[in-house]
Amino acid sequence: MRASNFRAIKAIDASKVTSLPPQPRLDGARYTKRMAANDLRLLACAGLAVAMAAAACGSDDNRNEASGAAGAATGGGLLQSDAALAEGSDEATAAAIVRDSESEMGADSSGPLPSRCTMPPATSASLKLADFGAVADGATDDGPAIGRAIAAAVAKGGVVAIEFSAGKTYRALSGTHTFGDFSWLLEGHDNLIFSGHGATLLLGPNVRGIWADGVNNVTVCQLDIDFAPLPFSQGTIRAVAAGTFDLTIDDGYDVPPDVPAPPSGVPFFGKLHRVAEGDLLHYYPGKILGQGARSLRITALDANQPTPAVGDTFVVPVLGVGQRGPEVMHVNQSAGVTIEDVRLFSAPLFSTYISANTGAITWTRVAVMPKPGTTRLISSWRDAFHVKDNRGPITFDTCAVDSSQDDAFNVSAHWMPITQLVSPTRVRVSRPYTAQLPQLGDTVQVADMTKGALLGTVKVTGRDPTTNQIDLASTITGLSVGTRLVSLEGSNPGTIIRDTKVNGTGLRLRSQVTVDDSSFNDGTVLVSAYDVEGPIPYDVQFHRSTFNHRYDPVLALMELSGTGTAAPALSGIEFDSCTFGRRISLSDVTGATLHNNDFVTGADEMWLAVANAHNIVISGTTDHGRPAADVISKISLGANVQRSDILLQ
Questions:
Q1: pLDDT of residue 183
Q2: d(Cα 380, Cα 408) in Å, to the nearest integer?
């Protein structure tokens, strides 16, 4: 949050701040400057966040989301000046993490996105949207003009570039698709380049951005995306009574419609920014009713909602717009798609949904963030990057997520429940959402998620897509109706997140992924599986990354849902050359390596909490940059773990 754009915020309770200093939130102009400096290494500073919702679209378990979004509300974030760190203190030690931030960023720049859409030599045509009737005045519906340009590009064949006018705003109030209206409908359309030249795509409440399904070699670059009206409003609490509070909508935000009762079938929540504490919490309203010109009275859904105070800020979901799908950018069953130098400033639900792709999908210098120069507390109502059921590698390079309200990244696959045991080695399954039937030769992981138990892995020797039938190479003990399986080859193998910043939201990593040279602030990482999303995690690796959280004492949770009595199953967990401002929790883990990590926690804080785990290897640990004298004294041992399960090297 930029002080020049928002009222003063009270100081955070010092007891809630660890030795790794809080970071100011992402400044849009500076991030734009960073995107222009392609050779600069992205800053590694901050903490890690992930929501603990029980389903992809959220749940009533808000513990981590409540804390994970806190950075957006208190100035915790993505860029940090060395001058803000006190010399001669523990903060000075942590300053080394952020040494290059301001020097590399240079002066603020409010100019357009950098020019990066280089036309390949084989480009056969360049089409200007203006030639198809686009007005680009920010008011006229340019949706039909965009559709005509896409149709013309497809008709031409070859590699065709569709050009936006530099710095202009294109309003899209209409689109085409049966599953919501999309401004850019790409179904089987190949070899297209959308060159934004720093333009803005301003979407109407019923329109989304990009539907790319079954495409090859498509690039979208140099574009800002926003909504008008916004999918949320925002105001200041003026009065509080038992179970209710009165809210005055802040200038610059629309007054949302009344909500006499929560909509059925979907989570419907607002965000309470408690100024004194600095955190940003889920708050489920039972009613939202107008009380005058720009005033609302909000009644709590039940007694379990957090307590507001006069002067706190509340983010209001806009009924019929906010918390309603589909996603803004959809990439499915495609290959060779590149999204580059794109900023998304708001999203009614998911910002992106990246699913069932067969080839490489690359996101470079993509930011999901509140619009620079505004007082917005949130960006996306749900996940920024939702990654599901992909067979091709998904790469995120030099990206940023600030204040999305579920996960910054959810990297997972859908479990396929077994519906029929035809024989001990032949099963039929149901395929939810984007789940893909395993291919011949795939390795499937089989689990009983009622117990959090890994039953085994086995090769697929036969398949029948018409009946969702799968033949297995051998029997699996415990296989039964209701147990679940997932293809490991269809669980996002080769996913990489590198040089990326996350603030005020989190990571939910369930499948193989590598995280390099990144920074995460104010939240908790969850490496886990539950009965909808899998697989049971393996080969999840973090290298040279930095994590901190001011509001939750636990940074990283490695665990499985279920009874907790099953044998440890998470494997191949690795933290190498990372910095932690809070402790890590390792549960249900059979094989984790922590090498050359630095803990910059408070003096009395533990570093690791270990339970139901074995084969935990720890080496090269430092304490605020100095060799750690007694690592074992900073590890708490819980149930089903012995001292011999911890190997210190």
A1: 84
A2: 9
Please count the other Cβ atoms lying within 10 Å of the Cβ belonging to residue 251.
Answer: 8
Q: Is-cis flag, bond preceding 438, omega within 30?
A: no
CA 571 – CA 593 distance, rounded (Å): 10
pLDDT of res. 120: 60
Please state, in angstroms and rounded to a whole number, the distance separating the CA atoms of residues 549 and 341: 28
CA distance 236 to 168: 33
DSSP 607-642: SEEEES-EEEEEES-EETTEE-S-GGGGEEE-TT--
Q: What are residue 593's DSSP bridge partners? A: 574, 617
Residue of 499 and 563 predicted with greater confidence:
499
Query: What integer best gives the mean pLDDT of the chain?
Result: 82
Q: Mean pLDDT lowest for which of 176-180, 291-295, 296-300, 303-307? A: 176-180
Tell me the per-residue pLDDT of 242-293, one tens digit each, with 9 for 90 and over: 999 999 999 999 999 999 999 888 789 999 998 888 788 899 999 999 998 9
3-class SS at 90? helix
Q: Is 76 exposed, middle or buried (0-12, 13-18, 19+ CB in 10 A)?
A: buried
C-alpha distance from residue 223 to each of 17, 260, 394 (Å)? 37, 38, 21
Asked if the bond preceding 432 is cis, omega within 30° of 0, the reply is: no
Of 502, 569, 500, nearest to 540 (Cα)? 569
**Alpha carbon distance 356, 359 (integer Å):** 9
For 34-86, the DSSP string reads HHH-TTSPPP--S-B-----SSTT--S--HHHHHHTHHHHHT-SS---GGGSP
Q: Dump pLDDT digits (tens) for 180-230.
A: 688 888 988 899 999 999 999 999 998 999 999 999 999 999 999 999 999
Q: Are 125 and 145 in contact (CB under 8 A)?
A: no
- CA distances (Å), origin 148, targets 161, 173, 210: 14, 15, 15
Q: Which residues contact 14 (CB under 8 A, 6 or more apart)?
A: none
pLDDT score, position 550: 78
- Could you give the CA distance from residue 451 to residue 124 in angstroms, rounded to a whole number? 57
CA torsion sign for 419, 421, 422, 427 is positive
Q: Which single residue is written with the structure tokens 């190997």?
A: 647
Q: In terms of pLDDT, which residue wins out, 152 or 28?
A: 152
The mean pLDDT value for 493-518 works out to: 95
Q: State phi, psi for 156 to the nearest 5 degrees.
A: -70, -35
Query: How many Cα atoms within 13 Å fall on the side-chain side of residue 475?
Result: 7
Q: Are 173 and 204 in contact (CB under 8 A)?
A: yes
Pair of tokens at residue 499 = 């040089």
Mind listing the pLDDT tens digit for each residue in 123-164?
678 999 999 999 999 999 999 999 999 999 999 988 999 999
Q: Which of 613, 392, 577 is nearest to 490 (CA)?
A: 392
- Which residue is listed with tokens 């392609």? 38
Q: Which of 505, 463, 248 is nearest to 379 (CA)?
A: 505
